[in-house]
Amino acid sequence: MNLAPLPALIGHRGLPSLAPENTAASIQSAVDNGIEWIELDVTMAGDESLVMMHDPDCRLFKQPDIKLAKLNKDALKKIDAGRWFSDEFAGEPLLFCEDMLALVRKTGVGLNLEIKINPDLDTQRQVDLIWAELQSYTEMFDRILISSFSIPALSHLRSLSDVINIGVLFEKVPSNALEITSTLKAASLHCDQSHLSQELALTLSEAMPLYCYTVNDTVTLHKLLSWGVSGVFCDRANADDLKAIVKEHQLTQKA
Ligand code: G3P
Ligand code: MG
């Protein structure tokens, strides 16, 4: 499936400098601040609810001992996903995948959905359920990119669909990364910028679009763009100083 171009600044978990990560407020804040693509994390709870959360437990809400695998949708609905961030967002609910997809459609924002496999639950089942949710959104597939650190999850997704756009996530890029992306017919490769060398970035970005997490400062952004990196996951993707670096880079490319 053709993938619409991603911008150089992708909202990491929405716009988490202004609103609690992975919530509807974070998506809306990103959209209101002109961010065109966002990355969000989805995982699964004990009753197979798909919820927009980074961790398989409640550490973000200061309850690290509560595992998602032990919770159902009713319990998740009682969690305050905003108060930890600020009083302004007290009462912000956790966002479920189905509601997230509806909001993404309504706002028109591009979506990089990162599957966080809950290690306490079955991998294939999590992918099956996410894929089932996506069935109602096939008309948006050119601006949906599914990524994961879990190669088994991505392999299973690819077995379910030839057309879905896949991004392969690595913390540290392994030497066989391009074999993996090729096998998965991936559209992009994503990695932790802190482990990336100039030589590796140039090699990878020659082969396919390369996106790095998490970049919040102008110096790193400038460096990565000059190394051929297509874009970065950023906690403040609306920031003028970062946008100025992107603009400067685009002018250099045209010259
Ligand atoms: O998808 C890029 C990035 O979000 C991966 O790391 O831990 O922030 O989900 P993390
Ligand atoms: Mg993520």
Short description:
This is Glycerophosphodiester phosphodiesterase family protein. This protein has 255 residues and is of the alpha/beta class. The chain has 9 helices and 11 strands.
Describe the 3D structure.
The chain is about 35% helix and about 20% strand. Strands 1-2-6-7-8-9-10-11 form an 8-stranded parallel β-barrel, surrounded by 5 helices. It has a two-stranded antiparallel ribbon with strand order 4-5. The model has no long low-confidence stretch (mean pLDDT about 100). It is of the alpha/beta class. Helix 1 runs parallel beside helix 3 and helix 4 crosses helix 5. The protein has a single domain, classed as TIM Barrel, CATH 3.20.20.190. It has 9 helices and 11 strands. It is globular, with a radius of gyration of 18 Å. The structure holds SN-glycerol-3-phosphate and magnesium ion (MG). Magnesium ion (MG) binds near residues 39, 41 and 114.
Strand order of the largest sheet: 1-2-6-7-8-9-10-11
CATH superfamily: Phosphatidylinositol (PI) phosphodiesterase
The assigned structural class equals alpha/beta
Bound molecules: SN-glycerol-3-phosphate, magnesium ion
Radius of gyration: 18 Å
CATH second-level architecture: Alpha-Beta Barrel
Q: Choose one word for the global shape.
A: globular
Helix content: 25-40%
Through-space gap between termini: 31 Å
